[in-house]
Specification:
Layout lengths: L17 E8 L11 E2 L5 E2 L15 H6 L3 E13 H8 L6 H4 L1 H6 L3 E15 L4
Antiparallel strand pairs: 1-5, 2-3, 4-5
Length: 129
């Protein structure tokens, strides 16, 4: 993972700058319920737009420290996936279906937990001198 871009963010330009960094965490439990896509490397993933899904804390946390960033907070929450996304994509509906149809928009609020996948969110800070 390349973190060089983080050092050029305006919020980190000064000492004490703070920002949020979301990621995906999928511990290797030997199961992947709800996995429905293959990424460019032909791995099963929950979202093909993610470059990487981390399986251990030590794969990501030290990278922030190596860029001079301090972890203020780290939280993992169970990922919930809209049921309608799975079916509408396979039926060929356009991506804007949720903006054009109120019923689909309401049904998209129904989400199922994806066992083994977590949203991993960080609050990071560039320490002052």
């Amino acid at each position: 993972m390349r973190l060089e871009w983080t050092l050029s963010l305006p919020s980190l330009g000064s000492m004490g700058g703070v920002f949020s960094a979301p990621s995906r965490f999928a511990p290797d439990l030997g199961i992947r319920s709800g996995v429905i896509y293959r990424d460019a490397q032909k791995r099963w993933v929950i979202d093909p737009t993610h470059l990487r899904e981390y399986t251990r804390d030590d794969q990501l946390v030290p990278k922030f420290a190596s860029c001079g960033l301090e972890t203020v907070c780290s939280v993992k929450t169970l990922h919930r996936f809209p049921v309608t996304d799975y079916f509408l994509k396979r039926l060929g509906y356009p991506r804007d279906v949720y903006q054009t149809h109120r019923i689909w928009k309401a049904l998209r609020r129904v989400r199922v937990p994806i066992i083994g996948y977590y949203n991993w969110e960080f609050v990071l800070r560039k320490p002052g001198s």
